[in-house]
Amino acid sequence: MSIEDDQLPEHEAEEPTGTQGRRGIRSYVIRGGRMTVGQTRAYERQWPQFGLTLENGPIDPSTLFDESGPLTFEIGFGMGQSLVETAATHPSNRYIGVEVHRPGVGALLMDVEQRGLTNLRVYCCDANAVIDQCLPDASVDCLQLFFPDPWHKKKHHKRRILQLEFLARVRRVLKPGGLFHMATDWEPYAEQALETLMSAPGYRNVSDSGGYVPRPESRPITKFERRGERLGHGVWDLMFQRTEID
Ligand SMILES: C[S@@+](CC[C@H](N)C(=O)[O-])C[C@H]1O[C@@H](n2cnc3c(N)ncnc32)[C@H](O)[C@@H]1O
Which of 22, 46, 81, 108 has the fewest C-beta atoms under 10 angstroms from its C-beta? Predict the structure, then answer.
């Protein structure tokens, strides 16, 4: 499939520079965009209570929260509305979100403050590093990846976050029986993800048809998804379970 530059989201329209870091190819480009005054103030007030950094090292989810319900880890929450919505709907469950886009973290913290949530923590850095350096083995009940950057052009496919190496990393932190849930509005990415998940060791497709699952009620429509809807895109949900056996 070919796609013209002017059809791409701004951050995918050019070959990013400086994306080949020490840890390899990155799945994101830091976008411009300033934080609003409200986001900045919420960030300053709420970060000490809700923010986590790689320097904090490995976390212990059993002491990090007052709540003790299932732990969900969301990668790339964007502006955070759907994650906040979910956390507000399930106040005894625990949520950790990761997003590299600082204004998105500011927006999420603003919503957390307004709703008085206590069951959510946030990182503002690369999710791969958080998984490797901060999450204990078999600690996560559900890992969510909603509308990851699709990296439309073939020469950029290596930047897609969902690769075999990523799935091995995710599997280590999922509890046996824990869920990996991805949604995308880009069909070629859905197809690649399905194929990669089917070939990844230690996962079982939850779908009865062996393909995609219907959107679970539990997943609110995300901001990026609404944008896709306006463009007439479909949506594909994939749900795989970590198997018991290594
Ligand atoms: C297309 S947006 C989707 C945002 C949101 N999930 C939604 O559906 O509205 C993808 C997001 O993932 C973030 N992202 C990409 N790679 C990431 C990584 N390795 N670690 C953390 N965030 C990442 C990007 O900054 C971007 O905000």
Answer: 22
